[in-house]
Amino acid sequence: MKLVKKLFFIFLIALIAVMIAYFARVNDTYVTLNLIFTSIKDIQLWLLSLLCFLTGVIFSVMAVFLDIIFLSNHERKMKKELNKLKSELVAVRNEKFADIDEETFSKEETLPATASDQADNGQN
């Protein structure tokens, strides 16, 4: 299965290279690029297209990295808040358990007698 993936990847790269070569062959005219502060004369159209594509890829990768950084920062804040809320919940639970009197559990008369308990007492 790995061999098929490698062959597919090689085929895809070869196809892209052939497409770029064909595009370069068809669009071999020279153009002038007028920027705000300067102008570039006699640049081939296919080279200009390739440079624009690579610039877009670079900006997209930078945007993705910035998004990952912001998301990891947000995730770290959320984990800190979650840990704080967990510790607060544990503290509240422990406080409720501390408030309960142990004497209420030791008294037998507070528990209602069931019919089976009364039958057992009558047989003895």
Overview of the structural elements:
The chain is mostly helical. The protein is about 75% helix and about 10% strand. The protein is built from four helices and two strands, in the order αββααα. A hairpin with a 4-residue loop joins strand 1 and strand 2. The relative contact order is 0.04. The model has no long low-confidence stretch (mean pLDDT about 80).
Low confidence ranges: none
Strand content: 5-15%
- Give Rg in angstroms: 38 Å
3D shape = elongated
Q: What is the helix content?
A: over 70%
Tell me how many strands there are.
2
Measured distance between first and last alpha carbons: 78 Å
Reading the helices and strands in chain order gives HEEHHH
Give, in spatial order, the strands making up the sheet with the most strands.
Answer: 1-2
Judged by helices, strands and strand pairing, the structural class is mainly alpha
- Mean model confidence by pLDDT: 81
Question: Largest beta sheet, briefly?
Answer: 2 strands, antiparallel
Note the total helix count.
4
